[in-house]
Write a structure and sequence with these properties.
Distance between the termini: 69 Å
Helix content: 40-55%
Order of helices and strands: EHEHHEHEHEHHHHHHHHHHHHH
Radius of gyration: 23 Å
Shape: globular
Largest sheet: 5 strands, parallel
Structural class: alpha/beta
Bound molecules: flavin-adenine dinucleotide
CATH class of the largest domain: Mainly Alpha
CATH topology of the largest domain: DNA Cyclobutane Dipyrimidine Photolyase, subunit A, domain 3
Number of domains: 3
Length: 433
C-alpha cells in the first residue's frame, strides 16, 4: 500500500501565506499534495478569453514557481471535482482532504457531494473559515436570527472583533511539509480551452494613506482612490485577516466598514440562498419590468445619452472595474429609469466584473433596485445629471471614458428623467402596495 498523504484543495484562497486550511494541512502528520481543479461546470459558462481565468491561471503559476523552488509542486486538474478526486485516488492513498469554506449556494452543494463521496471512501474532509473574519451565524441577533440591516450588524461585528486578537495562520512557515514531487500536472490556459485575455486585473493598494484619506476621497471616481482589493479578496490572493488588521489600526474606520459590508452580504446569501434568484422582499417580484432589449443593449454599451452612466459602463467594458459610486448610479438607472429587472444587470456585472462576488453583487443589485434587505427605498431615484455635479464636477471621469462628450452635442438621452421617474414610482407602487 502507498504511504498515506493529505490533500490541500485550493479554491478561492490562492496564496501560500496566512492560509487557514493550508496551515492545518501542513501541520498535520502527513505530507501534503496541493491541488487545484478547473471546474468544468464553472468554466463552461464563461467566454473563452475571460480575464478572470487568465488572472487565476497566473496566480496558480506564481504558486507553482514558489513550490518548484522548494522541490514541490501544485497539481492542476480540469473536470468535474468528483471525477478529479476519483483520478487522484487511483494514484494516492489519501487520509484527509483539507480546504477552506466557500459560502455560495453552488459551492455548498458541491462540497456536500464531495464530502459524501470522500467519506464513502473512508477519507476525512476538513474545512476551515478563511475568507472572512466572521462567517455564517457568528454574528446574529440575541434571538439567534440573522441581521438584515447593516448598521446593527456592523456594530456587533466591531464589538466581537475588539474582544478577540486576530489569529494569523503561518502556513508559509510549514512549506517543507509539501510532498517532494518528481512530476507535476500543470495545465496551460490552452489545455483548459481558454486564451489569454488582453484585459488585466489591476493590482491592489492598501496603504496607510489610502485608509486614512478613504472617507474624503472614496466618492469621486476621477480620483481613483479606492483599493482595488475586491478581485484579490475574491480569489484569496490576499489574506482578509491582514487587510482587516491594517484597516482596524487607522483612526478612521470607514475603510474597515466597507470590508464589513462584504461580510454582511456574505452572511445574507448564506442565510437566504434564495435571494440569488428572488427578490428578498417577495412583493417586489410583482414589479412589471419593461425589459426592453434595445434599451438594455444601450445601457450595456454605454450609449444611454447620460454621460456619467455611459462612462461607468465603458469603464466596466474596457477594464473589468467600475467605481462604486458609478455602480450605484448605473444600477439605479437600469432598474428605475429603464425598468429593467435587476437580475439582468446582475448577470451583466457577473460577466464583466473582475471583482465579481456573488453575495456582494446580488446584495448591491437588490440594494439599488430597492428589493433587498436594508435596501435603498424605491422612491429614492438617483438623478443621473445632478450626480455629475456631486461626484464629477470637473467632468474628469466622464472625459476619460466618454472622450466625445460635449454638453450640447452629446447623443440624445434614451429616456427623459422626469418621465422615467414618474413611471418608476407608479410601477413600483402598484407592485408593493
Ligand atoms: P474599496 O472602496 O477600496 O473597498 C474595499 C473593499 O471593501 C472592496 O474591495 C470590497 O471587498 C469591500 N466593499 C466595498 N464596498 C462594498 C459594498 N458596497 N458591498 C460589499 N463589499 C464592499 N463588490 C464586490 O466585491 N463584488 C461585486 O460583484 C460587486 N458588485 C456590485 C454591484 C453593484 C450594483 C454595486 C452598487 C456595488 C457592487 N460591489 C461589488 C460593491 C463595490 O462597488 C465594490 O466592492 C468596490 O467598488 C470595489 O472596488 P475597490 O476594491 O476599490 O473597493
Amino acid at each position: 500500500m502507498k504511504t498515506p498523504i493529505n490533500i490541500f484543495w485550493y479554491r478561492r484562497d490562492l496564496r501560500l501565506e496566512d492560509n487557514c486550511g493550508l496551515f492545518h494541512a501542513l501541520t498535520s502528520d502527513k505530507k501534503v499534495l496541493p491541488i487545484f481543479i478547473f471546474d468544468e461546470d464553472i468554466l463552461n459558462k464563461l467566454p473563452k478569453d475571460d480575464s478572470r481565468v487568465t488572472f487565476l491561471h497566473q496566480e496558480l503559476e506564481n504558486i507553482q514557481h514558489q513550490l518548484l523552488e522548494i522541490g514541490s509542486g501544485l497539481s492542476v486538474f480540469h473536470g468535474k471535482p468528483i471525477a478529479v478526486f476519483n483520478e487522484v485516488l487511483t494514484n494516492h492513498t489519501i487520509e484527509t482532504v483539507f480546504t477552506n469554506h466557500d459560502y455560495e449556494p453552488y459551492a455548498i452543494q458541491r462540497d456536500l457531494e464531495i464530502k459524501d463521496f470522500l467519506i464513502s471512501k473512508g477519507i476525512n474532509f476538513k474545512t476551515y473559515k478563511d475568507q472572512v473574519i466572521f462567517e455564517k451565524d457568528e454574528i446574529v441577533k440575541k434571538d439567534g436570527t440573522p441581521y438584515k440591516v447593516y448598521t446593527p450588524f456592523s456594530k456587533i461585528w466591531l464589538a466581537a472583533f475588539k474582544t478577540q486578537e486576530i489569529q494569523f495562520f503561518q502556513s508559509e512557515e510549514n512549506l517543507v511539509n509539501f510532498i517532494k514531487k518528481e512530476t507535476h500536472q500543470f495545465l496551460s490556459l490552452a489545455d483548459i480551452g481558454f486564451t489569454e485575455s488582453t484585459i488585466k486585473v489591476a493590482s491592489y493598494k492598501v496603504s496607510k494613506n489610502l485608509i486614512d484619506t478613504y472617507e474624503e476621497t472614496r466618492n469621486f471616481p476621477a480620483k481613483n482612490s479606492t483599493s482595488k482589493l475586491g478581485t484579490h479578496l475574491r480569489f484569496g490572493t490576499v489574506s482578509v485577516r491582514k487587510m482587516v488588521d491594517k484597516a482596524s489600526k487607522s483612526g478612521n474606520i470607514t475603510f474597515l466598514k466597507e470590508l464589513i459590508w462584504r461580510e454582511f452580504f456574505m452572511q445574507i446569501l448564506w442565510h437566504f440562498p434564495h435571494t440569488a434568484k428572488d427578490s428578498f422582499k417577495p412583493q417586489y417580484d410583482r414589479i412589471v419590468w419593461r425589459n426592453n432589449e434595445e434599451e438594455f443593449k444601450a445601457w450595456c454599451t454605454g450609449e444611454t445619452g447620460y454621460p456619467l452612466v455611459d462612462a461607468g459602463m465603458r469603464e466596466l467594458n474596457q477594464t473589468g472595474f467600475m467605481h462604486n459610486r458609478v455602480r450605484m448610479l448605473v444600477g439605479s438607472f437600469l432598474c428605475k429609469h429603464l425598468l429593467i429587472d435587476w437580475r439582468w444587470g446582475e448577470a451583466y456585472f457577473a460577466e464583466k466584473l473582475h471583482d465579481y462576488e456573488q453575495s456582494s453583487n446580488i446584495g448591491n443589485w437588490q440594494w439599488v433596485a430597492g428589493t433587498g434587505v436594508d435596501a435603498s427605498p424605491y422612491f429614492r431615484i438617483f438623478n443621473p445629471t445632478t450626480q455629475i455635479q456631486k461626484f464629477d464636477k470637473e467632468l474628469k471621469y466622464i472625459q476619460k471614458w466618454v472622450p466625445e462628450f460635449q454638453e450640447f452635442t452629446y447623443s440624445k438621452e434614451i429616456v427623459e428623467h422626469k418621465l422615467a421617474r414618474e413611471r418608476c414610482l407608479k410601477v413600483y407602487k402598484e407592485a408593493v402596495q
